[in-house]
Records
---
Amino acid sequence: MSLRYALLGLLAEEPASGYDLTRKFERALQRYAWHAQHSQIYPELNRLAADGLAMVVAEGARGRRTYAITDKGRTELRSWMLNPPDVFVVRHEFVLRLFLLSTLDPDDARAVLRPVVEDSARELATLRESIDTADTTTPPGALPAFGRLVAEYGLRSFQTMHDWALWALDQIDQADTTAPEINHSE
Amino acid sequence: MSLRYALLGLLAEEPASGYDLTRKFERALQRYAWHAQHSQIYPELNRLAADGLAMVVAEGARGRRTYAITDKGRTELRSWMLNPPDVFVVRHEFVLRLFLLSTLDPDDARAVLRPVVEDSARELATLRESIDTADTTTPPGALPAFGRLVAEYGLRSFQTMHDWALWALDQIDQADTTAPEINHSE
DNA sequence: TCAGGCATGTAACTCGTTACATGATTGC
DNA sequence: GCAATCATGTAACGAGTTACATGCCTGA
C-alpha cells in the first residue's frame, strides 16, 4: 500500500498528472525511498479517484489530467504518517550486496567496494551543490522547505557510506597483509 | 531475482535448511537489506536445486532438508556480486515517510520524528553491544569476519539517522518559533 | 514535416504476502 | 499426553515489471 501513500504525499505538495508523478519518482523517490513506473502509477491514480482520495482538477492537452488530493485524502495520508508499523519494509539491493561481501575473497571484495567509494563521493558532491544553491536562494527567515530535511538526510547517508567503504577497504587490507596464509584452505 | 542471490549468499556461508534460512532473514537481512517469508523461500530453494545452483546435502528429522551451494552456484553468485546494476532497487518505507514529512504541520512532523530518535538510539545500543562482544571473543590476529563490516555499516547508519533526527527536530523548532504566523495561510 | 517528448493505457508475467494446511519431534 | 517449536508446502491474491500500444503537441 506504500505506493498509494507515496502518490497521496506527492499530490499533497502540489497537484500533478500521472506523467508529472512518474518523473518525480524517477528524480527523487526512486533512488532513496520507493520506486514505481507509469504502468503502476496510472491505475493507482484511477483507484485514488474512485476512492475519493484524489480528484481530477484539470484536463489539458494530449489527454493530460491533473489530480489534486482531497480532504479525505489528506486525512488518510496523515493517519498513515502518524501510525508507522513496528517493522518497516526494507528492500535494498545495495545493502544486500554488503551482507554477501563475506562470500567473496579479499580481491573481489575490494573490487566491489572501490566503486562504492567513488559513487558515494559523486552523489555527495551533487547533493551538496544543490543544497547550497537552495540555501542561498531561500530568503533568510523563511521556513526551510521540508525537502531540505530529506536532502540533509541523503547528504549524511552518502557521507556515512563513503566513510564506511574507505574503512572497510582498510580492514580488508589489514586482514589480508596480517594473515594471508590462513585463507586458501579447502 | 535478488531473493535468489540472497539465498545463494547465505548458503555460501554455510549449508542450511529452508527453515534456517527463514530465521536468518528474520534476524538479519529483513531489517536492513531484504525481506522474504518461508512461502517464498521454499519454492525458490527448489528452483535453485533444479537449476543446479544448490543441492540437498542432508535429510533430517521432520522432513528437514539441508541445502548447500554448488560450484555452479558459487560462480553465479560471484558474477552477480561483481556486476552491480547502474541503479539499485530501493524500497524503504521509513525513508518514504521522511520524504512525506513535508505534508505534515510542525507538530505532526515532530510526533513522527521523536520516536525515530529513540528507536535509532536503541538499535545503536544493541548493535554496539553485540559488536563489542564479537570483538572481544575474536582471537587477536584472526581475520575479522565480514559480518563485522556489515555490523559497522549498520552502526554508522543508525548513528547517522539518530543525529539527523535530532537536527531535523531542531530545524523545525527554529522555523516554528521564528515565523509561526507565516503558516496557517489557506 | 518530422523528431522528440508529452501523455496515458493495458496485458502478460513475475515477485511477494497472507492465509490455509499438514505433520513430526522434543521437552515437560 | 500435550504444548511449543520444527519443518515444509500451496493457493489466492495483490504488488511490481516488462513489453506492447496509441496518439497528441511543440519546436526546429
Note: Residues 1, 3, 35-37, 39-40, 61-63 of chain B lie near DNA strand C (CB under 10 Å from a C1').
---
Amino acid sequence: MPSHGRDVHGATKAAECLSCYLKALCVPQGLSPDETALLDDLVFPPIRLEKREVLCVQEAPFDSLYAVRTGCLKQETAVEGAENLLTALWLPGDIIGCDAIGLGRYPGTVSALETATLCKLPFDQFEALTQRMPRLRRHLQRSISRAMHEERLSLHQLLCRTAEARLAYFLLAVSACFHRRGYSSSHFRLPMSRNDIGSYLGLTQETVGRTLAAYQNRRLLRVHGREYQLLDIARLERLASSTGRQKKL
Amino acid sequence: MPSHGRDVHGATKAAECLSCYLKALCVPQGLSPDETALLDDLVFPPIRLEKREVLCVQEAPFDSLYAVRTGCLKQETAVEGAENLLTALWLPGDIIGCDAIGLGRYPGTVSALETATLCKLPFDQFEALTQRMPRLRRHLQRSISRAMHEERLSLHQLLCRTAEARLAYFLLAVSACFHRRGYSSSHFRLPMSRNDIGSYLGLTQETVGRTLAAYQNRRLLRVHGREYQLLDIARLERLASSTGRQKKL
DNA sequence: CGTACAATTGAAGCATTTCAACGCCTGTGG
DNA sequence: CCACAGGCGTTGAAATGCTTCAATTGTACG
C-alpha cells in the first residue's frame, strides 16, 4: 500500500479535489477548510482505467472506496451454479465499495466499460479520519442507507414487471443519473452490451433488443448501437411506473 | 419522545438485555461491562405488537431502530401507479430501520405478521453513544453494508429465475434465518399469506400456491396453511441455485 | 351457522425464453 | 487488397412459464 500524506502529488491533490465537480457528492457539505484539507490528503490522484481494465477482482480484500469521476464501471459477481451476474453499475458521482465494507472483501469483479477516472479513498485512513470528523462518517452511513433502500425498492418493483417496464425504468434511472451530473438527460451513451443490460435486469439479450426496437417503433426513443436518445420521457415514465401487465382488476 | 436513562424500568432493563439471546446479534462483540451497561440504558423495555398492529407508517420521521426479539414483521411500501409492495421481511434477530437512516423517514409501513416483541433503540442517543464507542458504530455500518450486498445479490439472482427457483430460494433463506436463531430449520411457521409471499417475490398468489403444490407432489416439502416442513433441503438448494430454466447451451 | 377472507384449481392468453439463422462491424493475417 | 473469424445485434418461430380470470373449496372467527 502506497504511503499517503503530502508526497510528490501533494501540491496538486488538494487543488484537484476541490475543483472536482463531484466534490459535493463525495464529501459531506459544510466541512471547514481544515477538514477539507485533511480529506484531500487521503484522496489519491485520479486513477485512470482503460476499457475492460479491472479495478478489483471478486473476493479480493477490501481496502479502499473509489469515487467515479468519469466513465462507467460494472460489477460482475460469479455465483456458483450460474454464470456471471451483473450486480452493479456505477456512473460518474457514484461511490464504489460500499457493499464491500461489511464483508471485508469486494463482492464482485469491477471493470471499466469505457475509459474511466477514479479517486481512491483508503478505507482505514478514512475510518481514522472520521474520529475527528463525525460528519464524514454520518454522511457515508446515510448514503449507504439511502442506496440500500432505493435498491431494495427498485429491485422489488422490477421483480413483478415486464421487460418493457424494466427497461424503461432502467433507462430513466441512467438518464436521471447523467442529468444529476450535468450531462444531457435525453441523449447519452451507455457503453453496455445488450447482454450486460439483460444480465442487470434479468432478461435475455434478445428480449432487450426486441424491446428497444419496439420502443423505437413507438417513437419513444432512438437507439443506435449504444447511443440512446430519449424522445418521450413522459411516456417512458408512465411505462416505467406501471407493471406493464394488464391490470388485475 | 419518552425520557430515557434509569427510570422506573431501570432495574430490569439491563437484566433483560443481557439475558436476551439475541444480544450477540444486536450489539458488537467484545464490549466492556461498562459499555454494555451504557448500551442497555438505551434499550427500552421490549415493545409488544399484536398481529396486524403497526410499528411505524410510511414517511413517518425516522427516530429509532428496532431489534426483533420474537415474531415476524413486514414492510409494505406504497408506490404510485401500483399497489403496495412487500419490500422487507424481518424475523427474530433482524434490525428494523437500517433503510430509514439515510432518508430520515421510514420507507414503508411496518406491521406485525404475528405477535412480536421488539427492542427500541432511539437513534439520536445511539449516535451520541457511538462517540464513546466507535466499535458500536462500526458494527452497525458493517451490518448495513453486508445486508446491502446480500440483498443486491439475491434480488439480482431472483430477477432471472423462475417461480420455482425463487420460492426455493426464499424458503431456504427463511429456514436459514430460523436456524441461526436456534429454531428448527426444517419445520417452521411462516405467517405470511400467499399474497404476501407473491408480492415479496414478484409473483402472483396463484403461482405461489401452484408451485408449493408442485413441491409437495415431488416430496420436497409439506405445507399446511402457513406451516412448512422442508423434507429435502439438498434438492431444494439445487433448485434455488439454478435459474430453473433449461440451460442456454 | 354464516360471513369474509385465504387458498386451490382449471383454462386461456400472453410474455419471455430458447434455439437457430443471418447481417454488421472490426481486427487479423494472408 | 481480400478473406475470414469473432463479437455483437437483430430477427423469426416454437416452446415454456406465468398471469389472468373465474369458479370452487377451505378455514378462521364472529
Note: Chain B touches chain A through 52 residues (CB under 8 Å).
